[in-house]
Amino acid sequence: MDAPPEGYRRNVGICLINSSKKIFAASRLDIPDSWQMPQGGIDENEDPKVAALRELKEETGVSSAEVLAEVPYWLTYDFPPEVREKLKHQWGGDWKGQAQKWFLLKFTGKEEEINLLGDKSEKPEFGEWKWMSPEQILERFSILMFLFLILLSTLIVCRLWISRNLFTKKFLRFSHLIFNNIMLELSEILQNWVIN
User: Which distant-in-sequence residues (6+ apart) come within 8 Å of 71 by Cβ?
Assistant: First the structure.
């Protein structure tokens, strides 16, 4: 696995699906009508897969989940200057942005297990949760999160094709470079939007 670039906070994102292929999403307590998937920082010397399972349990109470796939590369984006300054005080470190490792997990438990108070080891982040169709995700989520979903889906399909020798690893590296260029463009758009 490639190491994330220097100066970026290591982070995991979790796309949790149920047996009906619906996606778990939750509304943030600190930002009204803002929905997202579970995600969070990776502790020092922590394996990203372990971090994904830990973050899922901390934020949703879910421990009954099976890892189906992992995006093989770190997906990076830069913080706009105002966001970087705010997070510098909040997190106690000056990060250029985040390097995220995304995982696709299948929920294998019962819905009673889902508890937005999490495992009570951290302050709750979410106020409401839903299983959403891909169409609902499109309506509720930011373009940034949607691009992560597209890339995750693409890489899962490519991984299956690679196992059948239909694509090469060079194709995955190429798609990763394209995605990073898209993220750079989006970062600039976001920065202009925040300033204006």
Answer: 101, 102, 103, 151, 152, 155
Tokens of 125: 């982040």
The answer to whether position 3 is within a domain reads no
DSSP 125: -
Question: pLDDT tens for residues 62-101?
Answer: 999 999 888 888 888 888 888 888 888 888 888 888 888 8
Model's pTM, two decimal places? 0.71
Domain of 64, in residue numbers: 8-195
Answer yes or no: is 157 within a domain.
yes
| Amino acid (1-letter code) at residue 150 | I
Question: What one-letter code names the amino acid at 146?
Answer: F
pLDDT for 118-169, tens place per residue? 777 778 889 999 998 877 776 776 555 555 555 555 555 555 444 544 444 5
Residue 185, domain CATH: 3.90.79.10
Give the list of residues 6+ apart from residue 30 with CB closer than 8 angstroms, or none.
125
Tell me the sheet residues that pair with 40. Answer: 12
Q: Which two tokens stand for residue 8?
A: 């970026």
Domain tally for the chain? Answer: 1
Which are the contacts of 69, defined by CB distance < 8 A and separation ≥ 6? 103, 104, 152, 155, 156, 159
Residues in the chain, total: 196
Q: Is residue 26 part of a domain?
A: yes
